[in-house]
Amino acid sequence: MTRSILAEIEPLAAGLTAIRRDIHAHPEMGMEETRTAALVARELRAAGLEVTEGVGGTGVVGTLRGNRPGNRAIGLRADMDALAIHEKTDLPYASTTPGTMHACGHDGHTTMLLGAAKALAARPDFGGTVQFIFQPAEEGRGGAAAMLADGLFERFPCDAVYGMHNGAGLPVGKFRIRSGPMMAAVDFFTVTFRGTGGHGGSTPHLATDVTIAQAHFCLALQNVIGRNVPAVEPAVVSIGSIHGGSADSPNVMPAEIVITGTVRTFSDTVRALMERRLRELAAIHAQAQGCSAEVAYSGFTNVLVNDPDHTAKAVRAASLLVGEEAVDGNAPPITGGEDFADMLQARPGAFIFIGNGVKEDGSFHSVHTPHYDFNDDIIPLGVGYWVALVRQELGA
Question: Could you confirm whether 138 is annotated as catalytic?
Answer without folding.
Answer: yes
